[in-house]
Amino acid sequence: MPKSSPCVFPWSSLWLASLITLVVQSRPAAGDKRPGFMERTLVLLDVNTRSPIRVLNDNFLSLQLDPSIIKDGWLDFLSSKRLVTLARGLSPAFLRFGGKRTDFLQFNNQKNLAKFRGPGPDYYLKNYEDDIVRSDIALDKQNGCKLANHPDIMLELQREKAATTQLVLLKEQLSNIYSNITITARSLDKLYNFADCAGLHLILGLNALHRNPDNSWNTSSTLSLLKYGAGKKYNISWELGNEPNAYRSMVGRAVNSTQLAQDYTKLRTLLQSVRYYHRAHLFGPNAGRPRKNAILLLDGFMKNAGSVVDAVTWQHYYMDGRVNKAEDFLKTRLLDTLTEQITKVTKVVNTHTPGKKVWLSGLGPAWAGGISNLSDTYAAGFLWVNTLGMAAVQGIDVVLRHSFFDYGYTHLVDQHFNPLPDYWFSLVFKRLVGPRVLGVRVAGLQRKPQPGRVIRDKLRIYAHCTSYYNHNYVRGSITIYIINLHRSRKKIKLAGTLRNKTVHQYLLQPYGTDGLKAKHIQLNGEKLLMVDNETFPELKPKTLRAGRTIAMPPMTIGFYVIKNINAYACRR
């Protein structure tokens, strides 16, 4: 398991006593048959309850929407009551509206409902557009949150339209020839309504490739957008551009770190000139995966504009479309790549602005829309939950998941508005895991590895204070989440301060016969399904009696709440 923290804390006498007792109990009595290796307790676990090793943002697990939803039409369905309910389940959180097509957005301050729509089959386009218009008129008559229940036939037509549009978008991506996307005043209204109704704080990405002849940033569209948002009193944070280190390969035009720093400084000045946004947050530079070019750009940007941004943002994707089996998501070498990337980024940031918050602002199991029947299955959950644990331990303040909803296979919610496995992992995480990260102590009792054999840890354990938003648990409770990548059951014995405490188990396993490729998930044996468009299933824990060993089935993920432990680190 990757090291959780450089911080070291002394082993308590209770911890040592627990270890000695467990070792003695694991030895067979004279004449008894020696128990098999699989029958022995594998791990003795304790947590430092005195002080947290990290304190993260309350919105640590946050969300992203790609601007392509304007092009493929899904933006018009963000008012769906079910979609808003699902997003609200993951609040409080940020909602980043950004991605590859951020740098092709153009704001147009008008309310035309159909002029800027994307392509669609001719046989339904006119009636479909009329339905959208009627839906918008009905929404405008509502006060407060504007919510809708869209007819099934309307959703079916939209799915067909989105599939057609995605072929166009994919062709653009492969050819590196991108068309502009117009975000109208109506589009912004719909986007903000979704975020506001779901309890999400909107972060809006601005087009950094709108350039003047001298390659300086053209602010005309942005100023119009800021004035409109201020007039509507939309509480928005901002960012500029997406993966600027890739501009040359994407559009044949480079923006170096010095120019980008000047652009961000100009944007900060622009925000201060609009009274409503003079204290708005600004995040950037949204650098790509920290390879050579991205690191050079980040270093130059931090040197010249590190003080301008409120948090430093970068992106990470684990794999491309060449992955072809579920087991690829369980490779420890793949899971550990994030640690290396975080180390590179934080080193640059701390060189120029020590203590500046770092965000992982675009995180997904795969790029280019993901892989069908792989990145949208239970298997992808190992990457996702491990990412949350690793990022928390290494002090990443916020992780924004790409994407909450859209076309493709890396999302939390599919196009039928049904939660995918990663959504349920996220929901359980939100309900149980708080922003205070705790140090973990583990003593393994497994046999020594063979000489020369490299053993990577396949049992990953993370600990936090239980979320204060969960009123089922008093302050002072602890949540431990465990990822078992082994193909066999593993046992964990709670020791030290955790010894003889009542535990609530939330064990998440694939549902059905598809195993790791399952698209449904069960919690303690019960399949998780929405009750209706506004009601979540009850997340019922299984109570483990005090002192009982935790048994983790093979290739599963579990959350365990240690009740009434009254941990000092979690009481404040």
TrEMBL record:
GO-annotated biological processes: extracellular matrix organization
Name of the featured protein: Heparanase 2
Gene3D superfamilies assigned to the protein according to its UniProt record, in alphabetical order: Glycosidases
Family note: Belongs to the glycosyl hydrolase 79 family.
GO molecular function: hydrolase activity, acting on glycosyl bonds
Cleavable signal peptide: 1-31
Domain of life according to the entry: Eukaryota
Keywords assigned: Signal
InterPro entries: GH, Glyco_hydro_79
GO cellular component, one term: extracellular matrix
